Amino acid sequence: MHEVVIQRMPAKDFNEYSLDDFVRHQVVTECWRKVDGEWKLLPIAFTEDWELDKCRKEAVDILQRAEKDLISFIAFQNGQGIGYITVNTRFIGSGKQYLQLEAFQVSEPYRGQGVGKMLFAKACEAAKEAGAQKLYISAHSSKESQAAYRALGCIHALEIIPWIADEEPCDVQMEYIL
């Protein structure tokens, strides 16, 4: 495997076409849901796939917000974007203790190779430097996504941010202590 390079945005090598070969594919068979106050793994099946226009929309959004309200890191291999993570710079929570991890994606062929761990570490370091105590994460509820967040040390959020939870009601609200 060629070297993976992590760059903070604005990255000189990143443009609207940098995610053209990005594979956002996930076959989901089970998801976590809160049932009668308890978390249960339920048989919920669907497949997520991004088309080229969605990849370009993500790239443009990262580019436009990079110097405004996002801390963003891109993972590159051979000049192609293979993963990214974005953190909103607006403090949230009752004690303004959180910065929100907005997006965290690794292209399917590169999952399980440490790319996500590298991106997450960079985002945590930058969020801590910005003054955050914790990251707030509205995380995909699939069995695999939850296992990945747990492996990184994320836990269920101690404080639920209603407007974020309402936006994605099937997500699991999590946090990471910096």
Structural overview:
The strands form two sheets. Strands 1-4-5-6-7-9-8 form a seven-stranded mixed sheet, with helices on one face. The chain has a two-stranded antiparallel sheet with strand order 2-3. It contains four helices and nine strands; from the N terminus they run βββαβββαβαβαβ. Helix content is 25%, strand content 38%. The chain has one domain (5-177): Aminopeptidase (3-Layer(aba) Sandwich), CATH 3.40.630. It is an alpha+beta fold and 178 residues long. The chain has helices spanning 52-65, 115-129, 143-152, 162-167, and strands at 5-8, 25-35, 38-49, 70-77, 80-88, 98-106, 134-139, 155-156, 172-177. The mean pLDDT is 94.
What labels describe this entry?
Aminopeptidase, 7-stranded mixed sheet, 178 residues, alpha+beta
Could you tell me the CATH topology label.
Aminopeptidase
Number of helices: 4
Shape: globular
The side-by-side strand order for the widest beta sheet comes to 1-4-5-6-7-9-8
Using only C-alpha atoms, the radius of gyration works out to: 16 Å
Overall SS class: alpha+beta
Low-confidence stretches: none
Tell me the number of structural domains. Answer: 1
Q: Average pLDDT value?
A: 94
Reported for the largest beta sheet, the result is: 7 strands, mixed
How much helical structure, as a percent, in the residues?
A: 25-40%
Q: CATH superfamily, called what?
A: Gcn5-related N-acetyltransferase (GNAT)
Q: Please indicate the percent range of residues in DSSP E strands (runs of 2 or more).
A: 35-45%
- Class in CATH? Alpha Beta
CATH architecture: 3-Layer(aba) Sandwich
The total strand number stands at 9
